[in-house]
Design a protein that fits this description.
This protein is of the alpha+beta class. It is 54% helix and 20% strand. It has helices at residues 6-32, 41-70, 73-89, 108-114, 136-149, 194-229, 239-256, 270-277, 279-296, 320-334, 364-381; strands spanning 93-98, 103-106, 151-160, 166-177, 183-192, 260-267, 302-307, 310-315, 338-341, 344-347, 350-357. The strands form three sheets. A five-stranded antiparallel beta sheet has the order 2-1-5-4-3, sandwiched between helices. A hairpin with a 2-residue loop joins strand 9 (338-341) and strand 10. Helix 1 packs antiparallel against helix 2. 22% of the residues are buried. The mean pLDDT is 84.
Length: 384
């Protein structure tokens, strides 16, 4: 292999193809009959032998003519040095096949990646023998594409090692032609991408784990956000969120010249329920009241747990009359509420106070105070 050069390879490839063509021609003529003077196997063998001698002498003469007239000894040495530098030091497999796909050259790395001892083991063998059965049709198609386009770039295959195992590879190929444009051979550069695939798989696994972690983080953030703005017992917004929502509603109403109402809701007799039936039943009564508000407020309204057994509802774009109509519906629905303890039904009720912007006040804190005062006024009128 050390004395091999490209001219020799091209000569070999061209010679093989001419012999193959001559052999097929004579074989066909023998099958068809009556083409030659005497259609006998002896005459055909004789013609075949004469043709081989003629082909060899013609090829040998052309090769020596172009070598003597086209290149100098120094040019040949330089080409040989460049050839060996490229072929023997390349980290990739470099192989040359004839037009039928039979190896006429393979560098050392070809043997390495396929698990062979020497590149000489490839010579004369078909390149298709290194493809698994399910990849052969793809390989044939790739060869046809190279023959048609002159080049093939970075096609991925699974290839066989000598021990029968497979490995992922990336293959590029080009068509080699003589000066007359006649195709002589294919040159293929093959790269073992096992490590690259392994790294890519690891990166994909890491990316998938990161995506999963990000999803979990987003879920946790949502939970934390909900916990930060929601009351855990009733599921209503908590006081922190209420304060921010009131500021936004106040700014919107002031900008658009619209009204909004603040409604304070306080449960009646919660202390008696806690003392008589326990705090678990008291919590259940608070949850029932919270559920009523969630079900009965409009989509644009905001219900919050103000603290203890008190609730605050922000009625969007609601005058005092609209607020009274809403709260009347709540009170009617509350008549149907009750909790059961020790086979006894305990009714749930609440008192309500309303303050409206800007009719009652234009300040948030004062609106809350007025609604609270209205609430306790309603409580004091309540008959027991």
């Amino acid at each position: 292999m050390k004395d091999t050069n490209f001219n020799t390879l091209f000569k070999r490839a061209f010679f093989i193809q001419i012999i193959t063509g001559w052999t097929l021609l004579l074989f066909t003529s023998y099958l068809i009959e009556e083409i030659w003077i005497q259609n006998s196997i002896v005459s055909h063998i004789g013609l075949w032998a004469i043709g081989l001698v003629g082909i060899y002498l013609s090829t040998y003469w052309r090769y020596n003519f172009f070598r003597e007239n086209g290149t100098t000894h120094e040019d040949t040495q330089i080409s040989s040095l460049i050839y060996h530098a490229v072929m023997e030091t390349s980290p990739d497999s470099i192989a040359i096949t004839d037009m039928l796909g039979n190896y006429i050259f393979a560098n050392k790395q070809t043997a390495v990646i396929h698990g062979y001892d020497s590149p000489e083991e490839f010579l004369g063998n078909s390149a298709f023998s290194l493809f698994p059965f399910n990849e052969i049709s793809k390989a044939v198609q790739s060869m046809s594409m190279t023959r048609a386009d002159g080049i093939l770039r970075n096609i991925e295959f699974n290839l066989l090692r000598k021990d029968g195992t497979t490995f992922p590879a990336e293959l590029s190929a080009a068509l080699i032609k003589n000066k007359s444009g006649v195709p002589l051979a294919f040159i293929a550069v093959t790269r073992d991408v096992t490590e690259r695939k392994h790294i890519a798989d690891q990166l994909n696994d890491m990316n998938e784990k990161l995506r999963q972690q990000l999803t979990e983080i987003e879920k946790l953030q949502m939970i934390l956000h909900e916990q930060a703005i929601q009351d855990p017992l009733t599921g209503l917004y908590n006081r922190r969120y209420m304060e921010e929502a009131l500021k936004q509603e106040h700014a919107r109403a002031a900008r658009d010249g619209q009204a909004f109402s603040v409604v304070m809701v306080d449960m009646n007799d919660l202390k008696k329920i806690n003392d008589g039936y326990g705090h678990i039943m008291g919590d259940e009564a608070i949850k029932q009241a919270g559920n009523l508000l969630k079900e009965r407020i409009r989509a644009e309204d905001i219900a919050c747990r103000y603290g203890g057994d008190e609730f605050l509802v922000i009625l969007h774009n609601a005058s005092s009359e609209t607020a009274r109509q809403c709260t009347q519906q709540w009170e009617n629905r509350a008549k149907e509420l009750s909790i059961t303890s020790k086979n006894k039904k305990i009714p749930i009720s609440f008192s309500i106070g309303i303050a409206t912007y800007p009719t009652d006040s234009s300040h948030i804190e004062e609106l809350i105070s007025l609604a609270d005062a209205s609430l306790y006024a309603a409580k004091s009128k309540r008959s027991y």
